Amino acid sequence: MTYEISPQDKFNPVDEVTWRDINGEVVALKLVSGEYYSFNEVGRLSWLSITEGKQVSQIVDHIVENYETTLEQAWKDLNEFITGLMEHKLLVKGE
């Protein structure tokens, strides 16, 4: 499935997901199914930024500031990350 993700978009974890930041690793749990997910360092930064209500463009900028990557690569990677989380029903598009 393809999702339209724009720079000004914001996303929120769905109500059925709980998560914790444990020793620098984010672990998310889908309460309904018991499935859990953990995120690498960039995924952690992205997830925390999403839960702070940041726009996609702000998250991309934050990734570029903190990691050796290009704006284009950060956008591509974040788009794939968000799309994957939406496909697994962990995120929904916010207001």
Structural class: alpha+beta
The major sheet is characterized as:
3 strands, antiparallel
Uncertain regions: pLDDT < 50 for 5+ in a row? none
End-to-end Cα distance: 21 Å
Strand order of the largest sheet: 2-3-4
Mean pLDDT over the residues: 94
Tally of helical segments: 3
Number of DSSP strand runs: 5
Radius of gyration: 13 Å
Q: What letter string, H or E per element, gives the SSE order?
A: EEEEHHHE
Q: Tell me roughly what share of residues is in helical segments.
A: 40-55%
Sheet-strand content, in percent, reads 15-25%
Q: What would your notes on this structure say?
A:
By secondary structure, the protein is of the alpha+beta class. The protein has helices spanning 41-51, 56-66, 71-87; strands spanning 11-13, 17-22, 25-30, 36-39, 91-93. Strands 2-3-4 form a 3-stranded antiparallel sheet. A two-stranded antiparallel sheet has the order 1-5. A hairpin with a 2-residue loop joins strand 2 and strand 3 (25-30). The longest helix is centred in the last third of the chain and has 17 residues, at 71-87. The radius of gyration is 13 Å and the shape is globular.
